[in-house]
């Protein structure tokens, strides 16, 4: 018969005592073990965060993380779908969507050459300067130069806006 070395409660395997602790002959109940772990994490927060991040990048850590993500998604599917819908309607969400479409459909990169210099009131399109870099242009200017040689026709305007030529 074994008792917890911290609180003195009688230990019963699989009820209030981890099997791994029984095999290691570690006489500590689940509640005390959890409290000790929590205290350690709080007192060594930086080390714990570093080790957690390091573990997430290992193959085993990725599998565990993905399994938890899938489980969370299945249990909260309505919330996740609603959150994704709201995110796609934000400015950042729209930008990410355009970036993904450019990469997937046209095999283009999406690196901002300059930040958006226009007011929030001006509706912009992100225009590919080349296959990798994009710049913000007002929608009406961008649409007025659609067609053959689209990039070449817009280069003088981009140079004027961004470089002052």
What do you see in this structure?
With 165 residues, the chain is mainly α. Among the domains are: 1-43, no CATH class; 92-163, no CATH class. 58% of the residues lie in helices and 8% in strands. It contains eight helices and three strands, in the order H-H-H-H-H-H-E-E-E-H-H. The protein has helices spanning 19-23, 30-43, 45-56, 59-75, 77-88, 91-106, 139-144, 150-163; strands spanning 111-112, 124-128, 133-138. The chain has a three-stranded mixed β-sheet with strand order 1-3-2. Strand 2 and strand 3 form a beta hairpin. The longest helix has 17 residues, at 59-75. It starts with 18 loop residues before the first helix and ends with a helix. The model has no long low-confidence stretch (mean pLDDT 87).
Write the layout of secondary structure elements.
Elements: H1 19-23, H2 30-43, H3 45-56, H4 59-75, H5 77-88, H6 91-106, E1 111-112, E2 124-128, E3 133-138, H7 139-144, H8 150-163
Parallel strand pairs: 1-3
Antiparallel strand pairs: 2-3
Tags for this entry?
165 residues, mainly alpha, three-stranded mixed β-sheet, elongated
Shape: elongated
Major sheet size, sense and barrel closure: 3 strands, mixed
Poorly predicted regions are: none
Share of residues in strands:
5-15%
